[in-house]
User: Fold this.
Amino acid sequence: MCHSFSRASFALATLLSLTFFERAASAQDAPSAPTIPTETLKANTATKGSTDIAKGGFVASDQPKEDDPHQVTDFTLAAGGLFTAGNARTIALTSAAKLRLRRDEHQFSTAIAANVARAGKKDEPTETTVENYQGLLRYDYFLDDRVSLFLQSTLRRDRFQGLDMRLNVDPGVAYYFFDTGKHRLQGELGYDLQHDVRRDASRAQSVPEGSPPGTPAPPPLDKTRTLNNVRLFFGYENKLRKEVSFVASFEYLQSFEDYETFRMVGDVGLKSNVADSLALATTYTIRYENLPLPNVEKADSIASLTLVYSFF
Assistant:
């Protein structure tokens, strides 16, 4: 029995040894698999097995990145004119330039404008019928996305309003209800210092109606006048469509010393692009002054059609 157990153990050992050597030989004969870089093992399929054309009833598309309202460079030139010849001769020119720069919390704005017109009949000299020049400088410091502190100064010369110069200095606070770079609504409240230098021809006063014959005319008005006003302003700009933009503004100034002395300025404009940087603009401006100089109308309005070129 002992010999039988020894023979069985020897046979089992022999079988295990043959199996081990057979597997070792097979492993040596088979070529080794090449090492694959880890990056090659990542999934890189051309499709995930599903294509979503419409999501929630709308076709998905890439939206253009919205302009950053904290980084703005806006410079435009505008010019227009009217010319007639023959029995009536007319020449009218209007021009303007505007610049707005914003870098984070700092914003600088400037603008200039001129309107000039002359008219006359055939074989007669032409006369000036419109002549005004305007300029603006402004600095804003933004406390946050909605509130800014500003200092603004405007200068105006208007022959037919009787002004050699009108200087306005306006510190105040502005609140932006929204300002996305393409869509803006703002309100402003502040103080206005107004200093007028009057034309000599506009200072003369007429004899009051109903005065007895021979009553002398009142003395001329002062050459200069300074007013302290409260200033209220609203401005709106819409550039949601690439081809069309709309602007509107309203300004109201009320004197502290005399509540019957106030003036208003309203402005509305529509601009439509005819090329990438060229647009056709229609604007209308009305100025109303409750107590103007003698022989000066209370309201002045200007409507113009101009070509506008945008550099940025």
Remarks:
- The chain has one helix and 14 strands.
- Residues 2-29 form the longest helix (28 residues).
- The two ends are 107 Å apart (CA to CA).
